[in-house]
Write a structure and sequence with these properties.
single chain, 172 residues, alpha+beta, 5-stranded antiparallel sheet, 5 strands
Length: 172
């Protein structure tokens, strides 16, 4: 008989991907937009370990509007310019490319951006919500205390999750 294939112990990444698959299955089962956006935000905060996050969707006039947020403290979504870097969210929505920064306050891409400086942002991860080749919005998470909170693995997981979440949001 042929030898049995070697068994490989599951890695932490395997567990994270399995967890993400179960979350994607749950969000795809939610037909109502408000609870779906809640599930998406809870999942992205858990997935990335971010201290807070925002989900922005493109309005019919083309502007981005915060539709859900997590861990804002005493702030609310009124005047969302004051609680997130609109320039980073817009950059992702315009280019369709993710943004990861180890320390936004020293990142030359954002050195002229008042929101980055004013918010004293450290780590930022923002990924596009893509549907049928178009960017429908942005998932934006940050950590104002830790530099380097997001790495390449977090970026890859967030991109994969955002693609699945975008389809669920479009369906809802």
């Amino acid at each position: 008989p042929p030898p049995e294939p070697a068994r490989v112990a599951p890695s932490a990444d395997d567990a994270r991907w399995r967890w993400m698959l179960s979350v994607v299955q749950r969000i795809n089962a939610e037909p109502r937009l408000p609870p779906l956006l809640d599930r998406v935000m809870d999942a992205i905060i858990e997935l990335t370990g971010a201290s807070r996050g925002f989900l922005l969707l493109r309005e019919p006039d083309g502007t981005l509007k915060v539709r859900n947020a997590r861990n804002l403290g005493e702030r609310d979504l009124v005047g969302d310019e004051a609680v997130l870097s609109r320039s980073i969210a817009e950059r992702v929505a315009t280019t369709g490319e993710p943004v990861v920064t180890i320390d936004a306050s020293t990142d030359q891409r954002f050195d002229a951006t008042q929101s980055v400086l004013g918010l004293r942002l450290r780590s930022v991860l923002a990924v596009p919500l893509r549907v049928r080749g178009e960017v429908a919005g942005t998932i934006y998470v940050d950590d104002r205390m830790r530099a380097g909170a997001f790495d390449e693995r977090a970026r890859s997981l967030a991109l994969a999750f955002a693609d699945a979440a975008a389809v669920a949001i479009d369906n809802a």
